[in-house]
From TrEMBL:
This is Probable 2-oxoglutarate dehydrogenase E1 component DHKTD1 homolog, mitochondrial isoform X1. Residues 575-778 form the Transketolase-like pyrimidine-binding domain. The keyword Oxidoreductase applies. It comes from Dinoponera quadriceps. PANTHER family: 2-OXOADIPATE DEHYDROGENASE COMPLEX COMPONENT E1 (PTHR23152:SF4), 2-OXOGLUTARATE DEHYDROGENASE (PTHR23152). It comes from the Eukaryota. Its cofactor is thiamine diphosphate. Belongs to the alpha-ketoglutarate dehydrogenase family. Pfam families: E1_dh, OxoGdeHyase_C, Transket_pyr.
Amino acid sequence: MYALGKFVLKKSPRLRLSSSVSCTGVNSYHSENGVYGYKPRQQRRFQVPKEYLDERAKQSNFYRLVEAYRTHGHKQANIDPLSMSKPSLLPELQLSNFGLNLKDKVRFRGILFTQQDEGIIEEAVRFLSDTYCDTVSTEFNYLETEEEREWFAETVERTLTEPLDDETRKMIAVEMLKSQAFDNFLAIKFVSLKRYGGEGAESMMAFFHEFFKLCASDDLKHIILCAAHRGRLNLLTGLLKFPPEKLFRKLRGLSEFPDMTRCTGDVVSHLISSTDLDIDGKSVHFTMLRNPSHLEIVNPVSMGKTRGVMQTIGEDAYGQDGSSRWSDRVINVQVHGDAAYTGQGVNQECLAISKVPHFEIGGTIHLMINNQVGFTTPPSKGRSSRYCTDLAKSISAPVIHVNGDNPEMVVRATRIAFKYQRLFRKDVFVDLNCFRRWGHNELDDPLMTNPLIYKIIHNRPSIPDRYAEELINANILTRENVRNSVENYTAWLNRILKESTEEAPRQRDYLTGRWTGIKQAEANVTQWNTGVELSLLKFVGKKSVEVPADLDIYPQVLKSHVQSRLKKIENGNALDWSTAEALAIGSLLYQGYNVRISGQDVGRGTFAHRHAIIVDQSTEAPFIPLNFMINDQTGKLEVANSILSEEAVLGFEYGMSISSPYTLPIWEAQFGDFFNGAQIVIDTYITNGEAKWMLSSGLTMLLPHGYDGAGPEHSSCRLERFLQLTNSKENEADSDDVNMEIANPTEPAQYFHLLRKQMVRDYRKPLILIGPKILLRHSQAVSSMTHFEPQTSFKTVIGDDKVKSDDVNKVILVSGKHYYALKDYRESTENKNVAIVRIESLCPFPIQELLEEIEKYKHARIFVWSQEEPRNMGAWSFVKPRFENLCGRQLKYCGRETMAAPAVGDGQMHQQEAKEVVVKPFAMK
Ligand SMILES: Cc1ncc(C[n+]2csc(CCOP(=O)(O)OP(=O)(O)O)c2C)c(N)n1
Ligand SMILES: [Mg+2]
């Protein structure tokens, strides 16, 4: 359906790789220029001014005291709004430790960042205590570089003493009062609603109010935010202009999507907003991401989505000249709950990828809504660490703890965090210490489990009321101002509630913008011409292994990869799996699509078959031949060798997949088994993101699978689990509109068409591709060039052309590499009566094609399903009802018997089983 433009062979550009090894920082490739999607960072140079160093040397005791506050001050800070007493002075801060007396005279310059040049120790201690031990405290003395540490100390010491203008103070008071009014309104109008209100955490409005202004002033164009339930509706309807009528409609039990959309929707606490905000006259696009109930799993998705937007706008190493930096125009913000942040392992993985090439996004700003409870669990039982943010230290990220009772300090904390992210483009945390006024939801009674803390909570005024009172006393607001703000907002909500109708939303907010032209798959079966002209195939094939003349290539790679591929391309036959992949990816790049392949060691490939990156032996410089096919090539291949993570990395790739339909995102598991570390991403996004939220994704998962004696954990990608997760029907033919596709191809050309189909068609579906291991180098698993040419496409079923249909009395159905074992056995026994039919697409289940195939065998009486997986695994329970219901024939099982482990670890037992699963289907009566 997609016509390839006339392609012109162009001379490949002359490339010069530097022969010198340049390694800037731990994460860099050994390359000066980087590769597509990664540019080594310039090392920043920094020197503490000599004058400061001299002062510190001369007044070393005083300097030690200041450093002690910077390091330990947070431990005695007043950051808990529920705490009744101020902690006593820490031993680490006792003056006697430093040989100093209160009245000693000292020079501050070069040691403390105050307006004052000199003073006495007493003044210094007061300043240090106000800065490091009051309603804001900071952890930063472990930052990676001296520059960061110096900068942080200076910024904290200067920012916390900055006055706030009255306008800002008024605005945050009003936003907090509105948030409280909103909660009160919902509590009265929707008594039984679990709204996860913002009460107790209203000062998050101060964070966001300030943050949005800072984003606009720094010319940021996109804010990508993810958040859980707490205070989400307040933020949406408050600062984010989410129309309350949409909320009220949802509260009446109606869909958030227009009528006629095939979408099952989601709950109220998962509503989102994606809108242009006008902030101080500047337009900033804001996206709050879809999230499931599984706390924190949205975080890697938001990071991937952020990077996807960066790719679309050409930021940093995605740009032409690479002059911009990650996050120049796009910023990622993650809002966490205190209990969930500590408990969910995905957060460790997210931080671990945050600075890795091909995953970096220029630093996330993390806001912790730290209400000091998770459901009924207090921090003492909810974590082993002092703070809920302690994971930050795993990447040496600074943390600013702030007492939510002091919204002005929240504003200052926001400023410090923002400035740090903008300057260093690294993660930073704001830990907003607050409380939760009601139970986990408003229908829960917290006194059942947490009586003491809730007595304190119930006896204290709300944060908005307390702050409004403060501003009234300071003559910044009047009582009338306060009353008007609350009454006007409540009246507005009342009016909207009264006027709102049951009319469905008209505006389509899905498949727009960059997704315009992409459709929802229809309930029919389409075939896509994914073939490619021979001349282009040959061109791409050659280019896929062409390296600069001076690249010092590893001899074995030259022989078994480069030369062997060139020969195959020349001869046009015996094309293997990795060549098919290179042809698919290369032809898509040629058409202008981007391709991103991510996973552990994907550049070389777990089985050393891919060599998408060729490594110079003298310099270790990486070279990606497919990115240099033609001059001005726009479609690029990003090879993202990932850290050893499945959950965060797969979530990240899903995030990339929903940001543009023009990048083919491929995630490869090292072995299929290990996808299960990312099960949450599969269960909550990949399988049903479209059903719940109308989010299309073309994410492609490659899962190496197959029984070859590798033992319980390197044999199975748990195909059965994916099959169970599809919405394929047992007694009706499937269409394109299944929730995801599952294919188990047996030939390289089939793999080629599957990959190309992901981009060429006009809708997007996740593809689970059961990948091979031994087929990568199997002499029979090869394709000729004719199977890649125009008018060819993916075959959902491959019939048997080795038998005469009239001779056949038994048909064996099979999927995947087991086919070759059956075929070999049939040949060795010269059996002419058994046909072997391969089911290449499992979902959608190709009933029509299968019927056509088996109709050929008029005398066949026995139909056998043959698999190498145990009976309780593999595709058996999926294929059986579909075949029997829709083909009207009985299907017999032949494979390993039910097992607990996917495969045995004992070599001899494996051999015995492998023999049986091949022989038995032929013997079965
Ligand atoms: C992965 C996961 N486990 C359990 C739950 C059930 N659950 C929902 S909210 C919640 C408490 C979360 O506490 P916290 O992260 O502190 O956020 P808060 O509700 O206090 O704002 C729990 C356990 C969930 N949604 N997701
Ligand atoms: Mg909490």
